[in-house]
Amino acid sequence: MASPSNLRFRRQHPAGTYVLDFYCPAFKLAVEVDGEVHARGDQPQRDAARDDWLYKRGVRVLRIPAQAVLSDLEVVVRHIMVTARGEYPSTGFAGPPPPPGEE
């Protein structure tokens, strides 16, 4: 298996009828950076259907609010790395993962 310290992502990766923001094939991990529009209208249901479609194909989806990327990119990158290793149970961004040794 690839090392999480040198994750390789594809940008705008096609998956069926969808286009993933970022995709790491070695870990079958999609990272979606969600702006405010993802909380409006029917977008949450559309995102859930998309996530379900990907899940059924063995792809984990990590959704990260765009504001988190803008405010603390280092924490976001660490969260992505920990998620790729499978050491953090959540694929929803709720802040930084626990400190090392407390995971």
From TrEMBL:
GO MF terms, alphabetically ordered: endonuclease activity
Domain spans labelled DUF559: 6-82
UniProt keywords (A-Z) are: Endonuclease, Hydrolase, Nuclease
* Name of protein: Endonuclease domain-containing protein
Instruction: Identify the species of origin.
Output: Sphingomonas agrestis
